[in-house]
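To illustrate this point, we now present one chain and its tokenised fold:
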Amino acid sequence: MAMKNATWLTEFVLTGLSYQPEWQTPLFLVFLAIYLITIVGNLGLIILIRNDPHLHIPMYFFLGTLAFVDAWLSSTVTPKMLVNLLDKDKMISFSECMTQFFSVAISVTTECFLLAAMAYDRYAAICKPLLYPLIMTNRLCVQLLVLSLVGGVLHAVIHESFLFRLTFCDSNIIHHFYCDVIPLTKISCTDPAINYLMLFIFSGSIQVFSIMTILLSYAFVLFTILPKMSAKGVSKAFSTCGAHLLSVSLYYGPLLFMYVHPASSQADGQDMILSLFYTVIIPVLNPFIYSLRNKQVTESLTKMLKTNA
């Protein structure tokens, strides 16, 4: 009977962020504002980089791509969350659920690799300034971007394929605001041990590789600039890298705890807070983090606003 129910399962219920009806409308307004700011901020950054020839360098190529991925990630999660905040049924079809998870997995993984590529770019720019144009060629930038996207797709395919082995016979209620692998394994009638193992191996490996690339890149940067530069030069170098380090710190903390920490021991509320941070909050913060701390971006923005005034 359980297998029959699992076979005919066509819909899930996303409980969302709040069980209390009086909070639905205020939350809707807050997250609608966050989503609009996310889209305007990230797309605005992409347009700014595209229209200013001074920003046509590898650093801003990766930054523009990161802005696109952030807008993509937010658009995968937030619109459905907004609909469910006002919808009493809060239903999502099985196919829509799998598609949403697939899209989130691609964008999250791609962003991990992009952050590592951005750190390598800063290493090349600061540690090997004379060879930088020869190292960070347009071809290499495109190759790193393609590899990041391919890595994201392959990672998503692995977890999606293991999700299809699960059966759902006791409950179709997902205690989350979007379809993610951990909440789905919690309501499965099938032993999810292999899913948790795949999460630990692949998600853990990707995060360790990305974090080690970032740490090694900035370690070389640190060892390069401290003995040679003046206090002003050191300050300028760290100002250039500071935005990226801040973004990395905010992004990887929740991810490490979510997917490397044993999933079965986490509470649903804790899962949602961590997921909310990297799917909704980080995408809205990144344009401000990279813009407000970047002199070239602020100057380009000021110039564009004066031109259009």
Observations:
- The longest helix spans residues 193-228.
- Confidence is low (pLDDT under 50) at residues 1-7.
